[in-house]
Design goal:
This protein is mainly α. It has helices at about 25-30, 55-85, 115-120, 125-140, 150-170, 200-205, 230-235, 235-255, 265-270, 275-280, 285-295, 305-310, 315-330, 335-350, 375, 390-395, 400-410, 435-455, 465-485, 495-515, 525-555, and strands at about 20, 100, 100-105, 120-125, 385-390, 415-420, 425. It has a three-stranded antiparallel beta sheet. A two-stranded antiparallel ribbon has the order 1-4. It has a two-stranded antiparallel ribbon with strand order 2-3. Strand 2 (about 100) and strand 3 (about 100-105) form a beta hairpin.
Length: about 550
Protein backbone atom coordinates (compact mmCIF):
# COMPACT_ATOMS: atom_id res chain seq x y z
CA UNK A 1 0.00 0.00 0.00
CA UNK A 2 1.34 3.43 -0.85
CA UNK A 3 1.82 5.88 1.99
CA UNK A 4 0.32 9.30 1.59
CA UNK A 5 2.23 12.30 2.86
CA UNK A 6 0.32 14.93 4.80
CA UNK A 7 0.26 18.22 2.88
CA UNK A 8 2.86 20.81 3.76
CA UNK A 9 0.95 24.04 3.40
CA UNK A 10 -2.71 23.47 2.45
CA UNK A 11 -5.31 25.83 3.89
CA UNK A 12 -6.10 24.84 7.46
CA UNK A 13 -9.68 23.88 6.62
CA UNK A 14 -8.42 21.60 3.83
CA UNK A 15 -5.88 19.62 5.85
CA UNK A 16 -6.29 15.90 5.18
CA UNK A 17 -6.74 13.61 8.19
CA UNK A 18 -3.73 11.73 9.51
CA UNK A 19 -4.33 8.02 9.05
CA UNK A 20 -2.49 4.87 10.03
CA UNK A 21 -0.39 4.97 6.87
CA UNK A 22 0.17 8.73 6.62
CA UNK A 23 3.82 9.63 6.17
CA UNK A 24 5.62 12.42 7.93
CA UNK A 25 5.87 15.79 6.24
CA UNK A 26 9.11 17.21 4.91
CA UNK A 27 9.16 19.71 7.77
CA UNK A 28 8.73 16.96 10.36
CA UNK A 29 11.56 14.99 8.80
CA UNK A 30 13.74 18.08 8.81
CA UNK A 31 13.05 18.72 12.49
CA UNK A 32 13.51 15.17 13.69
CA UNK A 33 16.73 14.66 11.73
CA UNK A 34 18.47 17.69 13.24
CA UNK A 35 21.25 16.84 15.65
CA UNK A 36 21.25 18.31 19.17
CA UNK A 37 23.99 20.77 18.23
CA UNK A 38 22.03 22.06 15.25
CA UNK A 39 18.53 22.49 16.66
CA UNK A 40 17.24 25.71 15.11
CA UNK A 41 14.39 27.16 13.08
CA UNK A 42 16.90 29.44 11.31
CA UNK A 43 19.04 28.74 8.31
CA UNK A 44 21.91 29.14 8.43
CA UNK A 45 22.14 28.41 12.14
CA UNK A 46 22.97 31.46 14.23
CA UNK A 47 22.36 33.94 11.44
CA UNK A 48 20.86 37.29 12.45
CA UNK A 49 19.65 37.83 8.90
CA UNK A 50 16.26 36.78 7.52
CA UNK A 51 14.51 35.89 10.80
CA UNK A 52 11.66 33.37 10.50
CA UNK A 53 8.20 34.92 10.53
CA UNK A 54 5.36 33.95 12.83
CA UNK A 55 3.84 31.57 10.27
CA UNK A 56 7.09 29.68 9.84
CA UNK A 57 7.65 29.41 13.59
CA UNK A 58 4.06 28.28 14.13
CA UNK A 59 4.59 25.62 11.46
CA UNK A 60 7.61 24.27 13.34
CA UNK A 61 5.71 24.08 16.63
CA UNK A 62 2.64 22.58 14.96
CA UNK A 63 4.72 19.90 13.27
CA UNK A 64 6.17 18.76 16.60
CA UNK A 65 2.91 18.87 18.55
CA UNK A 66 1.06 17.12 15.75
CA UNK A 67 3.59 14.32 15.55
CA UNK A 68 3.59 13.77 19.34
CA UNK A 69 -0.21 13.86 19.51
CA UNK A 70 -0.43 11.42 16.60
CA UNK A 71 1.81 9.09 18.59
CA UNK A 72 -0.59 9.33 21.53
CA UNK A 73 -3.68 8.53 19.48
CA UNK A 74 -1.88 5.79 17.56
CA UNK A 75 -0.95 4.02 20.77
CA UNK A 76 -4.44 4.41 22.17
CA UNK A 77 -5.73 2.68 19.05
CA UNK A 78 -3.19 -0.10 19.21
CA UNK A 79 -3.72 -0.63 22.93
CA UNK A 80 -7.43 -1.06 22.34
CA UNK A 81 -6.64 -3.61 19.65
CA UNK A 82 -4.40 -5.40 22.12
CA UNK A 83 -7.30 -5.55 24.58
CA UNK A 84 -9.51 -6.97 21.86
CA UNK A 85 -6.95 -9.68 21.15
CA UNK A 86 -7.43 -10.93 24.72
CA UNK A 87 -11.21 -11.08 24.42
CA UNK A 88 -13.03 -14.44 24.04
CA UNK A 89 -12.81 -15.82 20.48
CA UNK A 90 -15.41 -14.50 18.08
CA UNK A 91 -17.80 -16.82 16.32
CA UNK A 92 -16.73 -15.20 13.08
CA UNK A 93 -13.61 -16.48 11.38
CA UNK A 94 -13.69 -19.98 12.84
CA UNK A 95 -12.95 -18.97 16.38
CA UNK A 96 -9.89 -16.84 15.51
CA UNK A 97 -9.38 -13.50 17.22
CA UNK A 98 -10.53 -10.55 15.14
CA UNK A 99 -8.48 -7.38 15.26
CA UNK A 100 -10.02 -4.45 13.41
CA UNK A 101 -11.44 -6.78 10.79
CA UNK A 102 -8.22 -8.79 10.50
CA UNK A 103 -8.16 -12.47 11.39
CA UNK A 104 -5.01 -13.65 13.18
CA UNK A 105 -3.11 -15.91 10.84
CA UNK A 106 -5.46 -15.11 7.99
CA UNK A 107 -6.40 -12.48 5.44
CA UNK A 108 -8.43 -9.35 6.13
CA UNK A 109 -12.14 -10.00 6.40
CA UNK A 110 -14.72 -7.92 4.62
CA UNK A 111 -16.10 -5.21 6.86
CA UNK A 112 -19.81 -4.74 7.19
CA UNK A 113 -19.25 -1.02 7.15
CA UNK A 114 -16.57 0.52 4.97
CA UNK A 115 -17.29 3.90 6.54
CA UNK A 116 -16.53 2.54 10.01
CA UNK A 117 -13.38 0.90 8.68
CA UNK A 118 -12.19 4.18 7.21
CA UNK A 119 -12.98 5.97 10.46
CA UNK A 120 -10.94 3.42 12.39
CA UNK A 121 -7.94 4.31 10.26
CA UNK A 122 -8.06 8.02 11.13
CA UNK A 123 -5.76 9.14 13.94
CA UNK A 124 -6.21 12.91 13.73
CA UNK A 125 -9.22 14.28 11.90
CA UNK A 126 -8.99 17.24 9.56
CA UNK A 127 -10.81 19.35 12.14
CA UNK A 128 -8.44 18.32 14.92
CA UNK A 129 -5.41 19.18 12.80
CA UNK A 130 -6.90 22.53 11.89
CA UNK A 131 -7.72 23.33 15.50
CA UNK A 132 -4.25 22.31 16.68
CA UNK A 133 -2.65 24.66 14.18
CA UNK A 134 -5.12 27.42 15.01
CA UNK A 135 -4.31 26.97 18.70
CA UNK A 136 -0.58 27.18 18.00
CA UNK A 137 -1.05 30.39 15.99
CA UNK A 138 -3.24 31.81 18.76
CA UNK A 139 -0.56 31.15 21.37
CA UNK A 140 2.10 32.44 18.98
CA UNK A 141 0.21 35.72 18.58
CA UNK A 142 0.32 36.25 22.35
CA UNK A 143 4.09 36.12 22.49
CA UNK A 144 5.40 39.68 22.68
CA UNK A 145 7.99 40.96 20.24
CA UNK A 146 10.74 40.47 22.82
CA UNK A 147 14.29 40.01 21.66
CA UNK A 148 14.79 36.90 23.81
CA UNK A 149 11.62 35.76 25.56
CA UNK A 150 9.59 35.72 22.38
CA UNK A 151 8.10 33.23 19.95
CA UNK A 152 11.39 32.15 18.39
CA UNK A 153 12.75 31.28 21.84
CA UNK A 154 9.60 29.28 22.59
CA UNK A 155 9.98 27.33 19.34
CA UNK A 156 13.68 26.74 19.99
CA UNK A 157 12.85 25.40 23.46
CA UNK A 158 10.13 23.20 21.95
CA UNK A 159 12.51 21.84 19.32
CA UNK A 160 15.21 21.23 21.95
CA UNK A 161 12.72 19.52 24.27
CA UNK A 162 11.61 17.35 21.38
CA UNK A 163 15.21 16.40 20.60
CA UNK A 164 15.83 15.53 24.25
CA UNK A 165 12.99 13.03 24.06
CA UNK A 166 14.54 11.41 21.02
CA UNK A 167 17.93 11.33 22.74
CA UNK A 168 16.32 9.76 25.79
CA UNK A 169 15.04 7.00 23.52
CA UNK A 170 18.22 6.73 21.49
CA UNK A 171 20.74 6.42 24.30
CA UNK A 172 23.66 6.26 21.89
CA UNK A 173 26.27 8.71 20.66
CA UNK A 174 25.30 8.19 17.04
CA UNK A 175 23.82 11.24 15.37
CA UNK A 176 20.33 10.97 13.97
CA UNK A 177 21.27 13.33 11.15
CA UNK A 178 22.60 10.52 8.99
CA UNK A 179 19.44 8.45 9.20
CA UNK A 180 17.37 8.19 6.05
CA UNK A 181 14.53 6.41 7.76
CA UNK A 182 11.18 8.03 8.32
CA UNK A 183 11.14 9.52 11.81
CA UNK A 184 8.11 7.42 12.73
CA UNK A 185 10.26 4.30 12.51
CA UNK A 186 12.44 5.59 15.34
CA UNK A 187 9.72 4.92 17.90
CA UNK A 188 9.43 1.17 18.57
CA UNK A 189 5.67 1.11 18.88
CA UNK A 190 5.34 2.82 15.51
CA UNK A 191 7.03 -0.04 13.70
CA UNK A 192 3.71 -1.84 13.89
CA UNK A 193 1.71 0.94 12.26
CA UNK A 194 0.31 -1.02 9.29
CA UNK A 195 -3.10 -2.37 10.27
CA UNK A 196 -2.68 -5.15 7.72
CA UNK A 197 0.17 -6.66 9.74
CA UNK A 198 -1.10 -9.93 11.19
CA UNK A 199 1.33 -9.61 14.12
CA UNK A 200 0.71 -5.92 14.85
CA UNK A 201 -0.31 -6.31 18.47
CA UNK A 202 2.39 -8.84 19.26
CA UNK A 203 5.03 -6.57 17.71
CA UNK A 204 3.69 -3.62 19.67
CA UNK A 205 3.89 -5.35 23.02
CA UNK A 206 7.34 -6.82 22.32
CA UNK A 207 8.76 -3.39 21.62
CA UNK A 208 7.23 -1.83 24.72
CA UNK A 209 10.33 -2.76 26.70
CA UNK A 210 12.36 -0.20 24.74
CA UNK A 211 10.97 2.54 26.98
CA UNK A 212 12.24 0.87 30.16
CA UNK A 213 15.59 2.55 30.75
CA UNK A 214 15.20 5.06 33.56
CA UNK A 215 15.71 2.85 36.58
CA UNK A 216 18.96 1.28 35.41
CA UNK A 217 20.19 4.39 33.59
CA UNK A 218 20.81 2.48 30.38
CA UNK A 219 18.96 2.49 27.12
CA UNK A 220 17.46 -0.77 25.96
CA UNK A 221 19.20 -2.07 22.85
CA UNK A 222 16.93 -4.98 22.10
CA UNK A 223 13.36 -6.03 22.68
CA UNK A 224 11.93 -9.15 24.18
CA UNK A 225 10.82 -11.90 21.85
CA UNK A 226 8.09 -13.18 24.13
CA UNK A 227 4.64 -13.52 22.68
CA UNK A 228 1.61 -11.52 23.70
CA UNK A 229 0.20 -12.56 27.06
CA UNK A 230 -2.54 -11.11 29.28
CA UNK A 231 0.18 -9.81 31.61
CA UNK A 232 2.09 -7.91 28.92
CA UNK A 233 -1.07 -6.59 27.34
CA UNK A 234 -1.99 -4.79 30.55
CA UNK A 235 1.37 -3.08 30.59
CA UNK A 236 0.13 -0.76 27.85
CA UNK A 237 -0.93 1.77 30.50
CA UNK A 238 2.72 2.44 31.31
CA UNK A 239 3.75 2.73 27.70
CA UNK A 240 0.78 4.98 26.94
CA UNK A 241 1.84 7.28 29.76
CA UNK A 242 5.31 7.42 28.21
CA UNK A 243 3.88 8.74 24.98
CA UNK A 244 1.41 11.12 26.61
CA UNK A 245 4.17 12.57 28.78
CA UNK A 246 6.20 13.30 25.65
CA UNK A 247 3.33 15.29 24.16
CA UNK A 248 2.85 17.17 27.43
CA UNK A 249 6.57 17.92 27.59
CA UNK A 250 6.79 19.58 24.17
CA UNK A 251 3.46 21.35 24.84
CA UNK A 252 5.06 22.84 27.97
CA UNK A 253 8.07 23.97 25.97
CA UNK A 254 5.89 25.87 23.54
CA UNK A 255 3.70 27.69 26.07
CA UNK A 256 6.21 28.25 28.87
CA UNK A 257 6.82 31.98 28.19
CA UNK A 258 3.58 33.04 26.50
CA UNK A 259 2.66 36.67 27.25
CA UNK A 260 6.10 37.28 28.79
CA UNK A 261 6.73 41.03 29.15
CA UNK A 262 10.46 40.91 28.51
CA UNK A 263 11.43 41.75 32.11
CA UNK A 264 12.22 39.49 35.10
CA UNK A 265 9.68 38.55 37.74
CA UNK A 266 11.45 40.78 40.24
CA UNK A 267 10.68 43.79 38.06
CA UNK A 268 7.02 42.81 37.76
CA UNK A 269 6.81 42.64 41.53
CA UNK A 270 8.63 45.95 41.93
CA UNK A 271 6.25 47.63 39.47
CA UNK A 272 3.27 46.02 41.21
CA UNK A 273 2.12 44.60 37.89
CA UNK A 274 -1.54 43.46 37.95
CA UNK A 275 -0.59 39.81 37.49
CA UNK A 276 1.13 39.95 40.88
CA UNK A 277 -2.27 40.45 42.48
CA UNK A 278 -3.33 37.13 40.97
CA UNK A 279 -0.21 35.01 41.39
CA UNK A 280 1.60 36.48 44.38
CA UNK A 281 5.27 37.39 44.31
CA UNK A 282 6.93 34.14 43.19
CA UNK A 283 7.12 32.83 39.61
CA UNK A 284 4.39 35.21 38.52
CA UNK A 285 5.28 35.18 34.81
CA UNK A 286 5.43 31.39 34.70
CA UNK A 287 2.10 31.01 36.50
CA UNK A 288 0.56 33.55 34.15
CA UNK A 289 1.84 31.68 31.07
CA UNK A 290 0.29 28.45 32.35
CA UNK A 291 -3.05 30.15 32.92
CA UNK A 292 -3.02 31.79 29.50
CA UNK A 293 -2.26 28.48 27.81
CA UNK A 294 -5.00 26.48 29.52
CA UNK A 295 -7.52 29.29 29.27
CA UNK A 296 -6.90 29.36 25.53
CA UNK A 297 -7.06 25.58 25.23
CA UNK A 298 -10.46 25.64 26.96
CA UNK A 299 -11.99 27.93 24.32
CA UNK A 300 -14.73 26.43 22.16
CA UNK A 301 -12.64 26.93 19.01
CA UNK A 302 -10.47 24.05 20.16
CA UNK A 303 -13.08 21.53 21.34
CA UNK A 304 -11.99 18.69 19.08
CA UNK A 305 -8.27 19.29 19.60
CA UNK A 306 -8.83 19.37 23.35
CA UNK A 307 -11.00 16.25 23.36
CA UNK A 308 -8.31 14.45 21.37
CA UNK A 309 -5.73 15.36 23.99
CA UNK A 310 -8.05 14.57 26.91
CA UNK A 311 -9.55 11.19 26.15
CA UNK A 312 -10.09 10.61 29.87
CA UNK A 313 -10.12 12.63 33.06
CA UNK A 314 -6.82 11.00 33.94
CA UNK A 315 -5.33 12.47 30.76
CA UNK A 316 -6.49 15.90 31.87
CA UNK A 317 -4.95 15.57 35.31
CA UNK A 318 -1.78 14.09 33.85
CA UNK A 319 -1.32 17.06 31.51
CA UNK A 320 -1.86 19.58 34.31
CA UNK A 321 0.63 17.81 36.54
CA UNK A 322 3.39 17.87 33.99
CA UNK A 323 2.79 21.41 32.69
CA UNK A 324 2.66 22.99 36.13
CA UNK A 325 5.72 21.13 37.37
CA UNK A 326 8.06 21.75 34.47
CA UNK A 327 7.03 25.30 33.56
CA UNK A 328 7.38 26.59 37.12
CA UNK A 329 10.80 24.94 37.33
CA UNK A 330 12.06 27.32 34.62
CA UNK A 331 11.99 30.26 37.05
CA UNK A 332 15.70 30.01 37.80
CA UNK A 333 15.86 33.62 39.03
CA UNK A 334 13.76 32.77 42.09
CA UNK A 335 15.91 31.88 45.12
CA UNK A 336 12.94 30.07 46.67
CA UNK A 337 12.33 28.02 43.53
CA UNK A 338 16.02 27.18 43.15
CA UNK A 339 16.30 26.07 46.77
CA UNK A 340 13.30 23.79 46.29
CA UNK A 341 14.76 22.45 43.04
CA UNK A 342 18.10 21.72 44.68
CA UNK A 343 16.40 20.01 47.59
CA UNK A 344 14.26 17.85 45.33
CA UNK A 345 17.22 16.87 43.16
CA UNK A 346 19.22 15.85 46.24
CA UNK A 347 16.33 13.76 47.53
CA UNK A 348 15.74 12.15 44.17
CA UNK A 349 19.31 11.19 43.30
CA UNK A 350 21.36 11.18 46.51
CA UNK A 351 20.42 7.57 47.33
CA UNK A 352 19.64 4.76 44.90
CA UNK A 353 16.17 3.30 44.60
CA UNK A 354 15.98 -0.42 45.21
CA UNK A 355 15.98 -2.11 41.82
CA UNK A 356 12.71 -3.92 41.19
CA UNK A 357 13.36 -4.22 37.46
CA UNK A 358 13.17 -1.68 34.64
CA UNK A 359 10.76 1.20 34.93
CA UNK A 360 9.19 2.80 31.89
CA UNK A 361 9.45 6.47 31.01
CA UNK A 362 5.76 6.45 31.86
CA UNK A 363 6.53 7.06 35.53
CA UNK A 364 7.70 10.50 34.48
CA UNK A 365 4.05 11.26 33.80
CA UNK A 366 3.11 10.43 37.39
CA UNK A 367 0.16 8.56 35.97
CA UNK A 368 -0.63 6.39 38.96
CA UNK A 369 -4.13 5.95 40.28
CA UNK A 370 -5.36 8.95 42.25
CA UNK A 371 -8.48 9.03 44.34
CA UNK A 372 -8.92 12.76 43.66
CA UNK A 373 -9.16 12.40 39.88
CA UNK A 374 -12.94 12.71 39.81
CA UNK A 375 -12.85 15.85 41.90
CA UNK A 376 -10.27 17.63 39.81
CA UNK A 377 -11.97 16.74 36.53
CA UNK A 378 -14.64 19.37 37.21
CA UNK A 379 -12.17 22.15 37.97
CA UNK A 380 -11.26 24.60 35.22
CA UNK A 381 -7.64 24.48 34.19
CA UNK A 382 -7.11 28.14 34.96
CA UNK A 383 -7.89 27.53 38.62
CA UNK A 384 -4.98 25.14 39.18
CA UNK A 385 -1.59 26.05 40.51
CA UNK A 386 1.37 24.03 41.72
CA UNK A 387 2.36 24.54 45.32
CA UNK A 388 4.57 22.93 47.91
CA UNK A 389 2.66 21.44 50.81
CA UNK A 390 4.64 20.27 53.82
CA UNK A 391 3.78 17.07 55.64
CA UNK A 392 2.60 18.84 58.80
CA UNK A 393 -0.03 20.68 56.78
CA UNK A 394 -1.20 17.45 55.21
CA UNK A 395 -1.47 15.79 58.61
CA UNK A 396 -3.36 18.74 60.12
CA UNK A 397 -5.85 18.65 57.28
CA UNK A 398 -6.29 14.92 57.74
CA UNK A 399 -5.37 14.21 54.13
CA UNK A 400 -3.09 11.40 52.97
CA UNK A 401 -2.50 10.43 56.58
CA UNK A 402 -0.69 7.21 55.75
CA UNK A 403 1.65 9.00 53.36
CA UNK A 404 2.23 11.73 55.88
CA UNK A 405 3.34 9.19 58.48
CA UNK A 406 5.68 7.54 56.02
CA UNK A 407 7.24 10.83 54.98
CA UNK A 408 7.56 11.98 58.56
CA UNK A 409 9.62 8.87 59.24
CA UNK A 410 11.85 9.77 56.32
CA UNK A 411 11.82 13.40 57.46
CA UNK A 412 13.12 14.61 54.12
CA UNK A 413 10.91 14.50 51.04
CA UNK A 414 8.57 17.47 50.64
CA UNK A 415 5.22 16.62 49.09
CA UNK A 416 4.08 18.63 46.06
CA UNK A 417 0.41 19.09 45.40
CA UNK A 418 -1.98 20.63 42.94
CA UNK A 419 -4.05 23.20 44.79
CA UNK A 420 -7.51 24.22 43.60
CA UNK A 421 -9.84 27.01 44.54
CA UNK A 422 -11.37 26.26 47.91
CA UNK A 423 -8.12 24.84 49.27
CA UNK A 424 -8.49 21.25 48.01
CA UNK A 425 -5.19 19.57 47.27
CA UNK A 426 -4.20 16.69 45.03
CA UNK A 427 -1.02 14.80 45.85
CA UNK A 428 1.53 15.40 43.16
CA UNK A 429 4.36 12.89 43.06
CA UNK A 430 3.47 10.07 45.41
CA UNK A 431 0.70 7.58 44.73
CA UNK A 432 2.02 4.43 46.38
CA UNK A 433 2.61 3.58 50.02
CA UNK A 434 5.88 1.92 49.04
CA UNK A 435 8.87 4.07 49.97
CA UNK A 436 10.79 3.16 46.82
CA UNK A 437 7.77 4.09 44.72
CA UNK A 438 7.70 7.50 46.36
CA UNK A 439 11.38 8.02 45.63
CA UNK A 440 11.03 6.80 42.05
CA UNK A 441 8.05 9.07 41.37
CA UNK A 442 9.97 12.03 42.76
CA UNK A 443 13.00 11.10 40.68
CA UNK A 444 11.00 11.06 37.48
CA UNK A 445 9.26 14.33 38.29
CA UNK A 446 12.60 15.99 38.95
CA UNK A 447 14.05 14.57 35.73
CA UNK A 448 11.29 16.09 33.62
CA UNK A 449 11.90 19.45 35.25
CA UNK A 450 15.63 19.14 34.66
CA UNK A 451 15.10 18.31 30.99
CA UNK A 452 12.99 21.43 30.42
CA UNK A 453 15.58 23.51 32.28
CA UNK A 454 18.12 22.18 29.78
CA UNK A 455 15.84 22.93 26.83
CA UNK A 456 15.27 26.47 28.16
CA UNK A 457 19.01 27.27 28.05
CA UNK A 458 19.90 24.70 25.40
CA UNK A 459 21.91 27.20 23.34
CA UNK A 460 24.61 27.09 26.04
CA UNK A 461 24.93 23.31 25.57
CA UNK A 462 24.61 23.05 21.78
CA UNK A 463 27.00 24.96 19.53
CA UNK A 464 29.09 28.12 19.58
CA UNK A 465 26.96 29.63 16.81
CA UNK A 466 23.71 29.10 18.70
CA UNK A 467 25.24 30.36 21.93
CA UNK A 468 26.44 33.59 20.34
CA UNK A 469 23.09 34.15 18.64
CA UNK A 470 20.99 33.72 21.78
CA UNK A 471 23.57 35.48 23.94
CA UNK A 472 23.10 38.56 21.77
CA UNK A 473 19.30 38.21 21.84
CA UNK A 474 19.35 38.18 25.63
CA UNK A 475 21.61 41.22 25.76
CA UNK A 476 19.28 43.07 23.36
CA UNK A 477 16.28 42.33 25.57
CA UNK A 478 17.99 43.45 28.77
CA UNK A 479 19.39 46.56 27.10
CA UNK A 480 15.97 47.38 25.67
CA UNK A 481 14.44 47.14 29.16
CA UNK A 482 17.21 49.40 30.50
CA UNK A 483 16.62 52.02 27.81
CA UNK A 484 12.85 51.86 28.43
CA UNK A 485 13.33 52.55 32.14
CA UNK A 486 12.24 49.04 33.19
CA UNK A 487 15.68 48.11 34.52
CA UNK A 488 18.12 50.03 36.67
CA UNK A 489 21.14 48.12 35.42
CA UNK A 490 22.96 48.57 32.12
CA UNK A 491 23.73 44.96 31.09
CA UNK A 492 26.84 46.17 29.23
CA UNK A 493 28.71 46.37 32.51
CA UNK A 494 30.44 43.07 33.21
CA UNK A 495 28.69 41.10 30.45
CA UNK A 496 31.72 38.94 29.69
CA UNK A 497 32.30 37.96 33.33
CA UNK A 498 28.61 37.52 34.05
CA UNK A 499 28.40 34.89 31.31
CA UNK A 500 31.30 33.00 32.83
CA UNK A 501 29.58 33.18 36.19
CA UNK A 502 26.40 31.81 34.64
CA UNK A 503 28.30 28.86 33.20
CA UNK A 504 29.98 28.16 36.52
CA UNK A 505 26.90 28.63 38.69
CA UNK A 506 24.14 27.14 36.51
CA UNK A 507 25.01 25.72 33.08
CA UNK A 508 27.82 23.37 34.11
CA UNK A 509 25.98 22.05 37.20
CA UNK A 510 22.84 21.54 35.09
CA UNK A 511 24.79 19.61 32.46
CA UNK A 512 26.31 17.48 35.23
CA UNK A 513 22.80 16.53 36.34
CA UNK A 514 22.09 15.13 32.90
CA UNK A 515 25.06 12.81 33.25
CA UNK A 516 24.56 11.91 36.91
CA UNK A 517 20.92 11.00 36.35
CA UNK A 518 22.00 8.03 34.23
CA UNK A 519 18.84 8.44 32.16
CA UNK A 520 20.53 9.09 28.81
CA UNK A 521 22.87 6.14 28.72
CA UNK A 522 25.84 6.66 26.40
CA UNK A 523 24.76 10.21 25.60
CA UNK A 524 24.85 11.45 29.19
CA UNK A 525 28.11 13.39 28.74
CA UNK A 526 27.06 15.27 25.62
CA UNK A 527 25.67 18.33 27.42
CA UNK A 528 28.71 18.67 29.69
CA UNK A 529 31.12 18.37 26.77
CA UNK A 530 29.29 20.96 24.70
CA UNK A 531 28.90 23.38 27.62
CA UNK A 532 32.56 23.07 28.54
CA UNK A 533 33.63 23.60 24.94
CA UNK A 534 31.49 26.74 24.62
CA UNK A 535 32.62 28.10 27.99
CA UNK A 536 36.29 27.59 27.15
CA UNK A 537 35.88 29.36 23.84
CA UNK A 538 34.06 32.20 25.60
CA UNK A 539 37.00 32.55 27.95
CA UNK A 540 39.27 33.10 24.95
CA UNK A 541 37.01 35.11 22.67
CA UNK A 542 34.27 36.42 24.93
CA UNK A 543 35.76 39.83 25.62
CA UNK A 544 36.09 40.58 21.92
CA UNK A 545 32.65 39.12 21.12
CA UNK A 546 31.07 41.13 23.97
CA UNK A 547 32.65 44.39 22.83
CA UNK A 548 31.57 43.93 19.23
CA UNK A 549 28.05 42.88 20.26
CA UNK A 550 27.57 45.77 22.68
CA UNK A 551 28.75 48.32 20.11
CA UNK A 552 26.46 46.88 17.44
CA UNK A 553 23.40 46.81 19.66
CA UNK A 554 23.96 50.34 20.96
CA UNK A 555 24.29 51.54 17.38
CA UNK A 556 20.92 49.94 16.58
CA UNK A 557 19.33 51.91 19.43
CA UNK A 558 20.71 55.26 18.28
Amino acid sequence: MSRRAAGEHPPENDLPPIELDTSSTELQLRIFKQSWKNVSARHPIGSIENPPDIVTLADFASAILERRLTDVVRYRRQAKLADKSLAPPSKDGGGAHLINGIKEGGKPLKSSSSAQHNNDRILLTSRCRSQLRKFVKHIASMYHDNNYHGLEHAVHVTMSANKLLDMLQDGSVESLDSSNEDFMASEPYLKAQQSEDDNMVDSLMRNGSKFSSLASGTASKSSSSSSLTPRTAHQHNQTYSDIFAKFAFVFAGFIHDVDHQGVPNARLVEEDDPICNTYGRISVAEKHSIKVAFRTLNESDYDEFRSTVYETNEDKLRLHRIIHSVVLSTDIASPERMRETKKRWHEAFSRPVQDHGPLAFSRLSLAGKNTATKEIATVQASKLQLVTCDVDTIRREGKYEARGELLMKRNSISTRTLQMEGGQTVEYFATSSNEDDIKTALRHSVMLETMLNVADVSHAMQSWELFCFWNRKLYEELYSAFKAGRSDNDPSSGWYQNELNFFRGYIIPLSEKMKKSGVFGDRGEEWMKNATRIRDRWKKEGKRVSKEMINAVRKDFE
